[in-house]
Amino acid sequence: MSEATRILSAIEQGDPQAAEQLLPLVYDELRTLAAQKLAQEKPGQTLQATALVHEAYLRLVGPNDARSWRDRGHFFAAAARAMRRILVDKARAKQALKRGGGQALPVCDVELVAAEAGPDLLALDEALQRLEAEDPQAAQLVHLRYFAGLTSHDAAQVLGISDRTAERIWHYARTFLFRELTASRA
Question: What are phi and psi of 117, to 5 degrees?
């Protein structure tokens, strides 16, 4: 059992010091993951990788959470999902502010409308929700590969499936998301 897995087990059992021991072990990997996610965002993102890591970590091991993780891979999958939720929430809040809190945009604000064009995190989130409704395992694989940055082999191990099955599901999920994102632009 790895040190991280042992600490995750201690967190699950309610050890208050365990969460403090976990952060130094996983911080660098979480920060790398956060930087990758932020690099995929549109320019102008004000959230820093450090802030994203801290917010995601608090959601994962906060005092009100009773989470259990099987192992390190499961923890990082949950971290990726938490980061996705944070980024989606920030994008929704930013979009609401840009749109005047529900008020109509002025006709002269052409640059803002042009900046909003194209696929974005909100469209991807909606497409992922539809994929999750149709095929939860495919959606989980997308979370592990795209948001957690795991390799196909590592994601297959977390899901308990063969590498070949993971590749087939990955191909299906990418096709599904491409179709959904293309349809949402039309």
Answer: -70, 155
54 residue type, one letter: H
* Cβ-proximal residues to 68 (8 Å cutoff; 6+ apart), any chain: 8, 12
Report in angstroms the alpha-carbon separations of 108 from 24, 96, 104, 111: 50, 18, 12, 9
- The answer to whether 83 and 33 are in contact (CB under 8 A) is yes
What is the C-alpha to C-alpha distance for residues 177 and 182, in angstroms, rounded to an integer? 8
Question: CA–CA separation, 162 vs 182, rounded Å?
Answer: 30
Side-chain-facing half-sphere of 89: CA atoms under 13 Å: 10
Q: What is the pTM of this model?
A: 0.53
Q: What is the DSSP letter of 64?
A: T
Burial of 20 (0-12, 13-18, 19+ CB in 10 A): exposed
Residue 170: the pLDDT is 92
**pLDDT 10s digits, 54-107:** 788 777 776 555 566 677 777 778 888 888 888 888 877 777 655 555 444 333
